[in-house]
Amino acid sequence: MKRTDWKKQAKEDQRLIRLVLGGSREAFEELVLRYSDPLYRHALAMTGSPDVADDILQSSFITAYHNLADVRGRFGAWMFMIVSNRCRDWLKNVRRNHVSYDEDDQFSRIATPDEAFAMDELRSDLELALASLSVGLREAFILRHVEGCSYEEMSGLLSISPAAVKMRVHRARDVLQQLLKGKYDRCN
Amino acid sequence: MTDVTDDNTANDDKEIWARIDAEAQDLRTRRTPLYVHKRIMDGLPADLYSARPPLPWYKDWKKLLSAVALFILLSLLIAAGILGMLS
């Protein structure tokens, strides 16, 4: 997105936030409709579970509603921080509790990419391969190649330098390529 | 949208990135289920930012100040009028 578009959108978001703080629930619904899809995709790609993505999105927007008066800067970036932190927390808990998410999280029991491919045929190869990446690499790949963010935007969202963002994206691409090459070769 | 094949990729890897791009495209089409929107809106507290009714004039300090200033001005005018008639 161009910088002028950001500014325009940020201005419109601020207007909606003022309306919400003045008692308009419709204005908050407008914010939900505006931002839910990319946030949902992010939560889904990060966790691999539609149910978990639903819960993360719902709780994130409700938290945002409670703290709306604290928004400084862009609402979208602020919401991304909330959703991203919840995904990271969830992934940490999954690793810690390893066996307690049999239905919601296919990946808690996965040891190798090969096992991952065998366990869930409904999900795309890319989704399964993404689950094998570290959280940082996964996040970088999703933002760049699913959401189409620029390196500059990603730098702002992830609070790291554009050079570090580029490095993560390239590393994610390398790992995915290795994982998927093996998979595709087996399919052909 | 950023194509996953946009960076330096060897020719023999182009096919693999075309497949990855096709799968990334599928991910891009995912939308929030409608019931999630509903759950979010239903989960909001009812009265956190409820619109406040306007304050009555005697509780609104701006209106109260204006009323007092007007009262003092009118009193001064009346007093000046009375003094003028007496003199």
Describe what you observe in this structure:
The complex is a heterodimer of chains A (188) and B (87). Chain A has 188 residues and is mainly α. Chain A contains nine helices and no strands. Chain A has helices at residues 3-21, 25-47, 50-66, 75-97, 113-119, 125-130, 135-146, 151-158, 162-187. In chain A, helix 2 (25-47) runs antiparallel to helix 3 (50-66). The N and C termini of chain A lie far apart (38 Å). Chain B has helices at 14-28, 34-42, 61-86. Chain B has 87 residues and is an all-alpha fold. Chain B contains three helices and no strands. Helix content of chain B is 57%, strand content 0%. At the A-B interface, helix 2, helix 3, helix 6, helix 7 and helix 9 of A face helix 1 and helix 2 of B.
Features:
heterodimer, A: 188 residues, mainly alpha, 0% strand, B: 87 residues, 57% helix
Helix content of chain A: over 70%
- What are the segments of chain B in which pLDDT stays under 50 over at least 5 consecutive residues? none
Order of helices and strands of chain A: HHHHHHHHH
Radius of gyration of chain A: 18 Å
Strand content of chain A: under 5%
> Runs of chain A with pLDDT <50, length 5+?
99-113, 115-119
Largest interface comes to:
A-B, 44 and 32 residues
Q: Using the alpha-carbon principal axes, give the shape of chain B.
A: rod-shaped
Tally of alpha and pi helices of chain A:
9
Average pLDDT of chain A works out at 84
Shape of chain A: globular
**Helix-and-strand structural type of chain B:** mainly alpha
* Number of beta-strand segments of chain A: 0
Please describe the biggest sheet of chain A, giving its number of strands, its sense, and whether it closes into a barrel.
Answer: none
